[in-house]
């Protein structure tokens, strides 16, 4: 018997064991659902595949839905951590924005349309994650606008919503995902400066003058003697 508190090493060992059991349960359940479908997975099957007793499993989770919700929370946390790492590895503000959007688009592409995704993309933990993701993209847009890589005539919050909705569209391949990201980035770029034009009318092209009903050089002849076009025509008819 221990006279005082349980040694820290013993506590750490118990905690590590609990984490291992929990992680194994989450991974096994997600794999079973992906392979067999949600309705085919039971707590008994999870306990068997994980290698723990049913009684032990129920100490951790009350049902399959609770296991999947915990798995999804863990996935979201990992994805946000990964996107932060991608941001920190890129160089310029525009480059960071592009890298994060492409990474997020590929994550969505991998999980788009699955039964598991349809089940799990709801709940408070999803709303919190969405707020964190919006904040990440918002900050990247703000930085990129300061350097001229992103337009500044639209609020960063609106642009963040535009980005996240655009890159989550279903795409048939990884190459299509990259093209989608580039199209999205094109919509974020500032409008090119307007080209200044003079006020003097452009001189007609030579070919256009040659095909004029009056023939080539008609304007020059009429202008040369100070007469109008109609006066010049009447003069030619009179043999003048």
Task: Describe this structure in a few short sentences.
The protein has 240 residues and is mainly α.
Topology:
Blueprint: H1 8-36, H2 43-50, H3 54-60, H4 64-89, H5 93-111, H6 115-120, H7 124-146, H8 156-166, H9 174-188, H10 206-210, H11 218-224, H12 229-237
The first-level CATH class name of the largest domain: Mainly Alpha
Helix % is 55-70%
CATH superfamily of the largest domain: Tetracycline Repressor, domain 2
| Mean pLDDT over the residues | 80
- Taken as a percent bin, the fraction of beta residues is under 5%
Class computed from helices, strands and strand pairing: mainly alpha
* Count of individual helical segments: 12
Query: What overall form do the CA principal axes indicate?
Result: elongated
Largest sheet: none
């Amino acid at each position: 018997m221990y006279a005082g508190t349980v040694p820290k090493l013993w506590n750490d060992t118990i905690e590590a064991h609990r984490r291992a059991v929990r992680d194994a349960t989450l991974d096994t359940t997600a794999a079973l659902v992906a392979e067999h479908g949600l309705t085919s997975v039971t707590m008994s099957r999870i306990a068997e595949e994980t290698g723990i007793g049913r009684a032990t499993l129920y100490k951790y989770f009350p049902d399959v839905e609770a296991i999947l919700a915990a798995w999804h929370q863990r996935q979201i946390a990992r994805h946000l951590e990964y996107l932060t790492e991608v941001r920190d590895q890129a160089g310029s503000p525009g480059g960071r924005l592009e890298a994060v959007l492409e990474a997020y688009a590929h994550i969505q592409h991998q999980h788009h349309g699955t039964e598991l995704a349809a089940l799990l993309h709801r709940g408070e933990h999803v709303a919190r994650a969405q707020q964190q993701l919006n904040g990440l993209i918002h900050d990247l847009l703000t930085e990129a606008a300061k350097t001229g890589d992103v337009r500044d005539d639209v609020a960063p919050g609106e642009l963040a919503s535009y980005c996240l909705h655009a890159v989550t569209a279903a795409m048939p391949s990884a190459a299509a995902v990259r093209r989608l990201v580039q199209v999205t980035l094109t919509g974020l770029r500032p409008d090119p400066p307007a080209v200044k034009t003079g006020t003097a009318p452009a001189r007609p092209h030579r070919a256009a003058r040659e095909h004029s009903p009056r023939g080539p050089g008609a304007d020059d002849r009429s202008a040369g003697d100070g007469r109008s076009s109609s006066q010049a025509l009447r003069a030619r008819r009179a043999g003048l």
